[in-house]
Amino acid sequence: MSPTQDARDLKKGSLSMRIAIFLNIRFYFDGHCYTADERYYEFWATFTEHPGVSELWLCVPLVEKAGVQGLHRVELAENVHIVGIPISGEGPVSSLLGLITTFRFLKRLVLQNRDHWDGLGAVIPNLYGLMFLKQADRYDISSFAYVRGDHLKTVSHEYSGLRKLLFTGLARLQNRLAELILRGRAILVVGKALEQKYRRVSNKVQDIVVSTIRRKTQQQGNRNLDIDIDSVSLLYVGRLSREKGVDLLIECLSDLNVERQRYSLVIVGEGPEKARLELLAAQLKVNDCVSFAGNLNGVNLMTHYNTADMLVLPSRTEGVPKVLIEGMCFGLPIVCTGVGGIPYIAIHESNALVVPPESVDCLSEAISRIVEDSALRAKISAEAMRGFAEYSLETQRERVLQFLHG
Length: 406
What we know:
This protein is of the alpha/beta class. It folds into two domains: 3-207, 3-Layer(aba) Sandwich (Rossmann fold); 215-389, Rossmann fold (3-Layer(aba) Sandwich). 40% of the residues lie in helices and 19% in strands. Strands 1, 2, 3, 4, 5, 6, 7, 8, 9 and 10 form a ten-stranded mixed beta sheet that branches. A six-stranded parallel beta sheet has the order 13-12-11-14-15-16, sandwiched between helices. The longest helix is centred in the first third of the chain and has 22 residues, at 92-113.
């Protein structure tokens, strides 16, 4: 390994490291508390619970404005710190100026802390994360990347027409830039497909699952799997965007209820597709059996996991959804599509029923099978609960740290 490549691995032999990681999650500070739009920061924030990490800095885009909050309250240990990064404004000119300002800020941030931080990490694909890693190289700071997903696939589902052409081109450019910057670096990825892709640019690649579910969360004993076939409760948890395929699930509900209303659906989450999904439910005359619960967490979310008969994830494209791990933790029978990193965790006919994407018929058939076959329900639930330990926060954190220390 060349000296440059060796400098990119986290320092070996250090008893307790100080790490900074860039997360592309928007944080908010309203003058009283921090909140965030997503919860996966919790996985990285727990690294200081391990004796190998003494301090951690979460470098995140930050909005400081009274009355503006994210979805999740942020509570961190004393040795976990937040570094707020300025974010781009609205419109093309403001966005470009904001990009330049942020690049300068990151450059100055790494320069000021080059003797204090033992290692840097960045969640990508995004330009800020790549910039963060380039600054680590400049000052010979050990570094790693976590490739959270394939942005190109997400763009292909979210946009159409000229916008799709534009954003597809930008995504291709960003992917190419990532391959150049990540060459020879320690890389964590979501799923086997990305692992194979990035092995072309580095010989140190590891697929992981960023889990926020601790072992102690798991329900003890067997789940009650009795189903009232005249009142079946389906659950979806996730963002309401086109790539998540919630429209397919609503169509599926319409097919399942064609003879009489037996199935209901609770949709937990928010997103740009919400209004369209509400309209679709009304058009298909299933709005009376579809409930949009909004964003939930903590006890409120756990209640739905405990009371639902089945978790359904009809995604068109995915990374590794944390809700899949949450469903396994609670022993919920699961129906999901075999896209992205899902097949890495969900094994067909074992801990889930895995169906092709974009198929309402296959979704309907799999849901009906679980409702009608009590032995299959019991098998899926038991295998899911048994396999959860491998994907708990503690297990995955240990895998990451062992990998980074080489």
